[in-house]
């Protein structure tokens, strides 16, 4: 079943290097930590805890990055246009006040 082509979508060319020969950054970091002198002094339970802590930290960093991306794009889509419109309205009000003072039109707050 794995050799059947998928319907639709884009298919990428097969990799020439088998997956087991490709270096995996996450597993290489964990294997280096497992082989370090500090971890070798700790019991097997300590190694498991250290490995779990590393995996949790990696997942936390990924989710923090995703949250930062969501917050950043939300600000760009919602807040920046609001700031632009507010600034435009403020400039328009200032221009109207300036024109009114030049033309000598009475101030609207002074009329009963």
UniProtKB/TrEMBL annotation:
<dbReference type="InterPro" id="IPR017411">
    <property type="entry name" value="Tom22_pln"/>
</dbReference>
<keyword id="KW-1133">Transmembrane helix</keyword>
<keyword id="KW-0472">Membrane</keyword>
<feature type="transmembrane region" description="Helical">
    <location>
        <begin position="67"/>
        <end position="85"/>
    </location>
</feature>
<protein>
    <submittedName>
        <fullName>Mitochondrial import receptor subunit tom9-2</fullName>
    </submittedName>
</protein>
<keyword id="KW-0812">Transmembrane</keyword>
<keyword id="KW-0675">Receptor</keyword>
<feature type="region of interest" description="Disordered">
    <location>
        <begin position="1"/>
        <end position="26"/>
    </location>
</feature>
């Amino acid at each position: 079943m794995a050799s059947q082509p998928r319907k639709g979508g884009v298919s990428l060319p097969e990799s020439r290097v088998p997956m087991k020969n490709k270096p995996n950054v996450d597993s290489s970091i964990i294997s280096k930590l497992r082989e370090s002198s500090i971890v070798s002094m700790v019991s097997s339970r300590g190694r498991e805890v250290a490995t779990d802590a590393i995996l949790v930290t990696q997942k936390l960093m990924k989710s923090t990055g995703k949250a930062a991306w969501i917050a950043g794009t939300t600000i760009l889509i919602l807040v920046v246009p609001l700031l632009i419109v507010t600034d435009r309205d403020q400039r328009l009000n200032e221009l109207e006040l300036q024109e009114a003072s030049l033309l000598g039109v009475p101030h609207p707050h002074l009329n009963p």
